[in-house]
Every structure is written in C-alpha cells, then in structure tokens.
Amino acid sequence: MNVSHEIDLLVEEIQRLGSKNADGKFSVKFGVLFSDDRCANIFEALVGTLKAAKKKKVVDFQGELLLQGVHDNVDVILLQE
Questions:
Q1: Residue 57 DSSP label
Q2: Domain holding 46: CATH number?
Q3: What is the pLDDT of residues 6-60, one digit of tens each?
Q4: Which residues span the domain enclosing 56?
C-alpha cells in the first residue's frame, strides 16, 4: 500500500471513530484509534501512517511519536477532510 492511500484510509477512520471538536474538526483519541479492530486490520504501522499524515499536515497531535498506553489520551485532530 502506498502512503497516500493509507493516509486517505486514516482520514476515513478518524471520521468514523471521532467526533467534531469545538473548532468543527474531527478528533479522536489515539487509544481509540489504536485499539479499534478495523484499524488494526487496515494499518500495518498505524504510528508510521500518523507520522506521515502529520508531516503532510493532514492531522495534528501533540508530540512527534505516539505510543500505545503512554499516549492513549492524546487527541489526533483531522486538519483536512
């Protein structure tokens, strides 16, 4: 799978699992995204896809890298739909 396609799938999953925040942007907790069965089946490397999406300014989250457990409550915010 290429990176652009994975980022498109990530956008769909954030919309499916998240909700709109006060700014009208979709947001989902990293723990919710990471523990979702459908996401686990789609993404071989969710953290890598998130990092690539952040670099392309499709999503934003605090920090450089998200780790399961440690960053479960970090919001992943969708900047582009």
A1: T
A2: 1.10.10.1540
A3: 999 999 999 999 999 999 999 999 999 999 999 999 998 999 999 999 999 999 9
A4: 3-78
